[in-house]
Write a structure and sequence with these properties.
By secondary structure, this protein is of the alpha/beta class. About 40% of the residues lie in helices and about 15% in strands. Helix 2 links the parallel strand 2 and strand 3.
C-alpha cells in the first residue's frame, strides 16, 4: 500500500556558502533524516517521487549557489509539494559578509562563485571574495525571503545543530514562535523578525550578588519582578505580539523570531525570553534560544574554521 504523502516530511537547507549548511545537514542526519547534498533543483520533484515510492518519511535536501541558474524553480516546486500534502520546511543559513570572509580566509577555500570574478587582480583577493559573497546573496535573495533564516555569525556549530533539531521537531501545522536573547555588544541577530531593546531597564549586573548569575536563576528573576518598568515593558511586548501574530500566521508564516537584547545577553534579555515563551506557550508552538548562554563556556572563542570543514 502506498504511503500517505501527508506522512512525508521534507526539510530544504539553503544558504550562503560557509554559513554551516553541512553542519545543519549532519544534524538532520543524526535526527534520522535521509540527507542529500547539492541536489540540482531540476531533480527535486522526481527525487521526491522516488522517495515516496520507497516509503521515505523524513528527507533533508541541501541546495546551494552551484545550482544558481535553476534556483528560481525552487519556490514553485515547494508550493507543488505542499499542494500534494507533503510537509515542507525551508531553512536558510546566513552570516554577515565579514564573518564569511574570515571563514574563507582561515580555511583558504575558494568561493564557488570566485571563477566568475577572475578579472580581479591578485592583490585584491579580499575584494574579489566580498564581491562573490554579495553576488551569492543576490542570487539567493528569493529563497531567503521564503525560508526561516538562521544567522550563524555568532554561534558555534553545536548551537546550530541544536537549533536545527529543535526547529524540525516543532509542529509543521502551526506557526512557531522563536524567542531569542542576545547581547547588543555582540551584534543584533540577523534572523530576527522583531527586535526589542531592554537595555534601559534596571541591570542586575550592578548588584554584586547577582552579577555572576543569569536570567534563568530565581534571584535574578525576583529582582526584575520587583522593577515596575520591567513589568511594564513585558506587558507592552506581550500586547504587541498578541495583536500581530495571528496576522502573520494568516500570511502563512511558519516561523517568527522575536529577539530580546540587553548589554551582555545574560540577565534581562534572558529573563524576558523565559517570561514571553511561557506567556505564549498556550497559544503558539514556542522555542527558546539564549545566544550568549548557549555558547558558554568559551562563547567568544568560536572559530569560523569549523563551519567550512564540517
Amino acid at each position: 500500500m502506498n504511503q500517505d504523502t501527508s506522512d512525508l516530511q521534507i526539510v530544504l537547507i539553503t544558504g550562503m556558502s560557509g554559513s554551516g549548511k553541512s553542519v545543519a545537514l549532519h544534524a538532520l542526519e543524526d535526527a534520522g533524516f535521509y540527507c542529500v547534498d547539492n541536489l540540482p533543483p531540476e531533480l527535486l520533484l522526481s527525487f521526491v517521487t522516488v522517495e515516496k515510492s520507497h516509503q521515505a518519511s523524513r528527507v533533508a535536501i541541501a541546495m546551494d549557489v552551484r545550482s544558481a541558474k535553476s534556483l528560481p524553480l525552487v519556490p514553485e516546486q515547494l508550493s507543488s509539494l505542499r499542494r500534494q500534502g507533503i510537509t515542507v520546511k525551508s531553512l536558510f543559513l546566513d552570516a554577515t559578509t565579514e564573518t564569511l570572509v574570515r571563514r574563507y580566509s582561515e580555511t583558504r577555500r575558494k568561493h564557488p562563485l570566485s571563477q566568475s570574478l577572475s578579472e580581479h587582480p591578485a592583490q585584491d583577493l579580499r575584494r574579489a571574495l566580498v564581491d562573490a559573497i554579495e553576488l551569492e546573496r543576490d542570487l539567493l535573495a528569493d529563497l531567503r525571503d521564503q525560508a526561516h533564516v538562521i544567522d550563524t555569525s555568532l554561534i558555534r556549530p553545536s548551537q546550530l545543530q541544536s537549533y536545527v533539531k529543535s526547529l524540525i521537531s516543532s509542529s509543521g501545522e502551526q506557526m512557531t514562535l522563536v524567542f531569542e536573547s542576545f547581547a547588543f555588544k555582540r551584534g543584533v541577530p540577523g534572523d530576527a523578525d522583531f527586535v526589542f531593546d531592554v537595555r534601559m531597564l534596571p541591570n542586575p549586573h550592578y548588584e554584586s550578588e547577582l552579577r555572576h548569575l543569569t536570567g534563568l536563576d530565581a534571584p535574578v528573576a525576583e529582582f526584575l519582578q520587583q522593577q515596575a518598568d520591567v513589568g511594564k515593558m513585558l506587558r507592552h511586548i506581550d500586547r504587541f505580539l498578541d495583536s500581530w501574530l495571528s496576522a502573520l500566521a494568516r500570511d502563512h508564516r511558519s516561523y517568527v523570531t522575536v529577539a530580546i537584547g540587553c548589554t551582555g545577553g545574560q540577565h534581562r534579555s534572558v529573563y524576558f525570553v523565559e517570561q514571553l515563551a511561557e506567556s505564549f506557550a498556550d497559544k503558539w508552538v514556542t522555542l527558546k534560544r539564549h545566544r550568549e548562554l548557549d555558547a558558554a563556556p568559551g562563547r567568544f572563542s568560536a572559530t569560523s574554521t569549523g563551519w567550512l570543514q564540517a
